[in-house]
Amino acid sequence: MIRPFRLGDVFLIQRLSRQSTRLSLVRTLLYPQSPAWAAIKTVNPLDGAKVTTYVLKQQGHQLARAGFIQMQKRPDRPEADIILLSPALDTPTGHPAIWEKLLAYAVQEAARQKIVRLFVEVPDQPLPVNTFAHVGFKLYKHQTVWRMSANMHVPPLDHDGYQIRAARGKTHGRSRNSTPR
Questions:
Q1: Which of 8, 124, 132, 149 lies at a 20 to 30 A Cα distance from 43?
Q2: Per the CATH hierarchy, to which homologous superfamily does domain 2-145 belong?
Q3: Model's pTM, two decimal places?
Q4: What is the 3-state secondary structure (H, E, C) of the chain?
């Protein structure tokens, strides 16, 4: 059975969040918070973030026993982002059947809330891509992120008054220490 988060689910969310897949890199880096806290905050009607959590709990099913999905509505637009699914597919308790059930339910709930577009940043791996495709998601944009090797020398570049240069020494360490691990 899949249903919206209740306070009694907090321990399940906390346990499963250790093996979750975060699907929004920008949100994870800029607004790090535990999935359990994001779920608890939805109980507050004044919460502007509007992260919705749906929980799957069923007995007797071998593959899909427990999991949860979180999605966040975009402000002032009929759109939402799927930001987390748990358990991750590469964990012992993870299975595409869990994700497919949760995704199908989230799509139905989004339509009920008059959300017309759902977005998600899917890792470029066959299993997650195929799992989302089975539920009806289509590829919208492909993005590749490259990182320059630290020992490569590149002269600074001036672009519209902003100097762009490779990370080095103290700058590199500061950014590494301020990034969630």
A1: 132
A2: Gcn5-related N-acetyltransferase (GNAT) (3.40.630.30)
A3: 0.72
A4: CEEECCHHHHHHHHHHHCCCEECCHHHHHHCCCCHHHHHHHCCCCCCCCCEEEEEEECCCCCCCCEEEEEEEECCCCCEEEEEEEECCCCCCCCCHHHHHHHHHHHHHHHHHCCCCEEECCCCCCHHHHHHHHHHCCCCCCCCCCCCCCCCCCCCCEEECCEEECCCCHHHHHHHHHCCCC
